């Protein structure tokens, strides 16, 4: 994922320069009646005031949130405001993860944003039939698909019949040839989208025979991405339950695989490829050595703090660890780590602990932060690139 990819906003610049930032992570449309929306906005206004948010920022937040930005219910909004102006407004077609968060300070709170961004998997849904197919490319969590395409079949004959006599076999072959040609066209369209858009998964549903013909025609690289769903979502009266379940299970398993692969990478070379624990991870971030930062999302609720620095190395354990980068600003440890990761172009992943509604959260201890390194840990005192002004300018960029 690109952590710095915000519509019209360079997150590097926002995080590098201390200011007076208001960040709000709250519910979007929830499908409630208008009176409930007004009540929710009044409660939010009170919480904004309690957080010390300036009046101009409060007005900007309350003016922006009721706007219809095409989100379904439930949904989530993340807003970044400064000097009474909404600098960024991100909406997600998913329920809020964790508690509502409202902050005002030198740096915005970005971990909730990155958690949602991390779940925006690119998928292609192919709903195929004997008369054509509907192709939908989207990023999960976004309100609208990025590409929708309909592939039309060649027309008649679509349904096999039994006219009888010597012409029956010829007629049946003609029908099958039409089906085959239609799925060949669908396969070409699917392969083209995979090459251009690079989805992580391709979900194929629809008429069983059409699915079989389609899978015979698509390229091998595309086939590796396919999850076949045994349901015809194009049929009259059909619902998307099986498809939605397949998407949820596949994406969840893929996320678990990424977490496992990250841990495996950190454990390579007798764990010299990784840094584990707060102190070691901060040291690696100070060297711009982190390739991937892995955090337990429960760490967002911890009270431990680190210092966010106004210049490289961006984060410090305490005032004696700032490398003359200037006075630091205390931030929750998870936020300080995430900020330093973004500013040094590291990827950020979260270990999620989202129990089912009504179920308690895991009672196990929070997993310590873990980092996969760009070069082995032993190089910190050996042949690693030294931290200097040139490197600092590069990573801030």
Can you offer a commentary on this structure?
With 397 residues, this protein is an alpha+beta fold. It has three domains: 118 residues, 2-Layer Sandwich (Translation, Eukaryotic Peptide Chain Release Factor Subunit 1, Chain A); 133 residues, Nucleotidyltransferase, domain 5; 130 residues, 2-Layer Sandwich (60s Ribosomal Protein L30, Chain: A). Helices cover 35% and strands 23% of the residues. The chain has eleven helices and 18 strands. The strands form five sheets. The protein has a five-stranded mixed sheet with strand order 9-8-7-10-11, with helices on both faces. A four-stranded antiparallel sheet has the order 5-4-3-6. Strands 12-18-13-17 form a four-stranded mixed sheet, sandwiched between helices. Strand 14 and strand 15 form a beta hairpin. Helix 5 crosses helix 6. The radius of gyration is 26 Å and the shape is globular. It starts with a strand and ends with a helix. The C terminus is likely disordered.
């Amino acid at each position: 994922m690109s952590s710095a990819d915000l519509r019209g906003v360079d997150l590097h610049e926002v995080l590098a320069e201390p200011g007076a930032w208001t960040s709000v992570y709250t519910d979007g449309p929830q499908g409630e009646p208008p009176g409930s929306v007004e009540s929710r906005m009044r409660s939010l206004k009170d919480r904004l005031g309690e957080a010390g948010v300036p009046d101009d920022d409060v007005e900007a937040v309350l003016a922006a949130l009721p706007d219809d930005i095409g989100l379904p219910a439930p949904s989530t909004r993340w807003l970044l405001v400064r000097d009474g102006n909404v600098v960024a407004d991100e909406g997600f077609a998913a329920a809020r993860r964790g508690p509502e968060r409202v902050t005002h300070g030198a740096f915005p709170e970005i971990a909730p944003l990155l958690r949602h961004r991390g779940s925006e998997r690119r998928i292609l849904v192919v709903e195929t039939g004997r008369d054509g197919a509907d192709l939908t490319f989207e990023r999960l969590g976004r309100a609208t698909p990025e590409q929708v395409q309909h592939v039309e079949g060649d027309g008649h004959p679509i349904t096999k019949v039994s006219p009888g006599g010597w012409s029956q076999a010829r007629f049946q072959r003609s029908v099958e040839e039409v089906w085959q040609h239609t799925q060949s066209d669908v396969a070409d369209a699917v392969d083209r989208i995979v090459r251009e858009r690079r989805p992580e998964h391709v979900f194929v549903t629809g008429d069983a025979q059409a699915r079989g013909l389609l899978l015979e025609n698509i390229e091998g690289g595309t086939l590796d991405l396919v999850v076949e769903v045994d349901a015809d979502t194009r049929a009259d009266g059909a619902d998307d339950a099986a498809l939605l379940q397949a998407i949820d299970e596949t994406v969840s398993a893929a996320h678990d695989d990424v977490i496992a692969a990250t841990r495996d990478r950190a454990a390579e070379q007798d764990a010299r490829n990784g840094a584990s624990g707060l102190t070691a991870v901060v040291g690696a971030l100070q060297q711009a050595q982190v390739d991937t930062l892995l955090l337990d999302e429960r760490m967002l609720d911890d009270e431990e703090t680190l210092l966010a620095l106004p210049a490289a190395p961006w984060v410090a354990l305490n005032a004696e660890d700032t490398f003359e980068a200037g006075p630091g600003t205390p931030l929750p440890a998870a936020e300080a780590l995430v900020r330093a990761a973004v500013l040094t172009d590291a990827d950020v992943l979260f270990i999620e602990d989202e129990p089912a509604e009504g179920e308690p959260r895991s009672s196990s201890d929070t997993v310590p932060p873990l980092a996969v390194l760009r070069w082995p840990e032993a190089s910190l005192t050996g042949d690693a690139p030294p931290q200097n002004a040139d490197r600092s300018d590069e990573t801030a960029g």
